[in-house]
Amino acid sequence: MKNVTLCYIERGDEYLMLHRVKKKNDVNHDKWIGVGGKFEDKESPEDCILRETLEETGLTLTDYRYRGLVTFVNTVYETEYMHLFTATGWSGEIGECREGNLEWVKKDKVACLPIWEGDKIFLRLLAEEVPFISLKLMYDGDVLTGAVLNGKVMEI
Fold first, then answer.
1. Nearest 10 degrees: CA dihedral of 42, 131, 2, 8?
2. What is the pLDDT of residues 76-120, one digit of tens each?
3. Which domains does the chain have, with CATH numbers?
4. What would the pLDDT profile of 17-56 be if each residue is shown by its tens digit?
């Protein structure tokens, strides 16, 4: 089981999205996601998202919120706890990302991109300003098979 972070950086009606096309053997290959990554030893979720955002984008977050915990359970991949953030403030300039291409995408267009099916659920919850999300997403490989929000089974 692993701990990771993910952040959706907001600029008005856009998110900074990462099109994962550069890493080999990437479970997210060809998908569009926010920025983030795996925890290092002794890091808190906030430590991790600040470091990963700087590494992947060149930006230093100055205004960000911890929005929830998403548990990914998959028949193929290791269980993953994803600490979800949004950010509206930063300093620095966007640089080159070694994991893919960074692009500002209109929030209402993100669901049309190749993203994980479960991402549509938490992106909707973020848009609805749900105060804190506890979401469990169950997958069989790439196929979403179930979702539980705050202990209640969701229709998918």
1. -90
2. 999 999 999 999 999 999 999 998 999 999 999 999 999 999 999
3. 2-153 (3.90.79.10)
4. 999 888 777 777 789 999 999 999 999 999 999 999 999 9
Measured between alpha carbons, how far is 110 from 113 in angstroms, rounded to an integer?
A: 5
Over residues 114-127, the mean pLDDT reads: 96
Q: How far apart are CA 78 and CA 134, in angstroms?
A: 19
Q: How far apart are CA 44 and CA 141, in angstroms?
A: 29
Looking at residue 83, its amino acid is: H
Which are the contacts of 105, defined by CB distance < 8 A and separation ≥ 6? 14, 15, 16, 17, 32, 113
- Write down how long the chain is: 156
Closest CA relative to residue 8, chosen from 80, 147, 115: 115
38 DSSP 8-state letter: B
Query: What's the rounded Cα separation, in Å, for the pair 79 and 2?
Result: 7
